[in-house]
Amino acid sequence: MANENRVVLKLSGEALASSASDQTIDALTVDRLAREIAEAKESRDLELAVMVGGGNIWRGATGELAGMDRATSDTMGMLGTTINALALQDALESHGQATRVLSAVSMAEVAEPYIRRRAIRHLEKGRVVVFAAGMGNPYFTTDTSAALRAAEIEASILLKGTHGGVDGVYSADPKLDPSATRYETVSFSEVLAKDLRVMDLTAITFCKDNNLPIRVFDLMSPTNLRRSLLGEALGTLVA
Ligand code: UDP
């Protein structure tokens, strides 16, 4: 049974960067996201776990294209997510929000290991849990890791914040097709049949099989993160 107050938020690594600076991690951007999370936690009985990506630092596919061993390159990507997780933890704690980083790859001096029951305990105690290193396996993405952890900890929804200026799921790519329209809700079957870009296919299929709804919303508009954490129906619901 899903816990109604428990939510997993997927933040892409690139959401921590900014076009306004050339920093890999933009402190002002991370601070804004952390502030919205802390505000949402104050205004609602919310149990929040965040899966951070690493695309601002490294993607496994990039190394593979350059001739690297895929598993090694993916491991580099997972380590990148950990750097992002620490940045987010730091920003959350500067806003007074207790946070624990739980890593799927053991690095005892830096983060706690991911243990499902421990993650749930932290959430029950009001701490924000930040998942680092995806699910710890190469060949996977943090989208799929977010879906897996959401199912494991019995979250009621997976919130997927986008950073590319597209505020939900569209019938076609709105940047290429001006007649594309945004769905308020769309079924998993339609997303799969029409190959709509929401998350990678592994993640979508996992959510479909496990009845885990996804809300896709524009993360970059100020207040959107807070509002979506408060349960507002922004963007598109995939269910
Ligand atoms: N990764 C992985 N296993 C996981 C999660 C991530 O191997 O369980 C690697 C993979 O190489 C990926 C990189 O970490 O390209 C960064 O994650 P992702 O691309 O999902 O980050 P995002 O696009 O969300 O920033």
What does this structure look like?
By secondary structure, the protein is an alpha/beta fold. It has one domain: Carbamate kinase (3-Layer(aba) Sandwich), CATH 3.40.1160.10. It is globular and about 50 Å long. The mean pLDDT is 96. The site of uridine-5'-diphosphate has 22 residues, from helix 3 and helix 5.
- Molecules bound to protein: uridine-5'-diphosphate
Q: Compute the number of structural domains.
A: 1
Can you count the helices? 8
Major sheet details? 9 strands, mixed
CATH level-4 homologous superfamily? Acetylglutamate kinase-like
Average pLDDT over all residues? 96
Uncertain runs are none
Based on CA atoms alone, the radius of gyration comes out at 17 Å
The SSE string, one letter per element, is EHEHHEEHEHEEHHEHE
Overall shape: it is globular
Structural class: alpha/beta
Q: Write out the strand line-up for the largest beta sheet, numbering strands in chain order.
A: 4-3-5-2-1-6-8-9-7
Helical proportion? 25-40%
CATH class: Alpha Beta
N-C termini distance: 16 Å
Strand content: 15-25%
CATH topology, what is it called? Carbamate kinase
Number of β-strand runs: 9
Write the layout of secondary structure elements.
Blueprint: E1 3-11, H1 27-43, E2 47-52, H2 60-65, H3 70-94, E3 99-103, E4 112-113, H4 116-124, E5 128-132, H5 142-152, E6 155-162, E7 185-186, H6 188-193, H7 201-209, E8 214-218, H8 224-229, E9 236-238
Parallel strand pairs: 1-2, 1-6, 2-5, 3-4, 3-5, 6-8, 7-9
Antiparallel strand pairs: 8-9
Helix pairs in contact: 1-3, 5-7
The protein binds uridine-5'-diphosphate.
The site of uridine-5'-diphosphate has 22 residues, from helix 3 and helix 5.
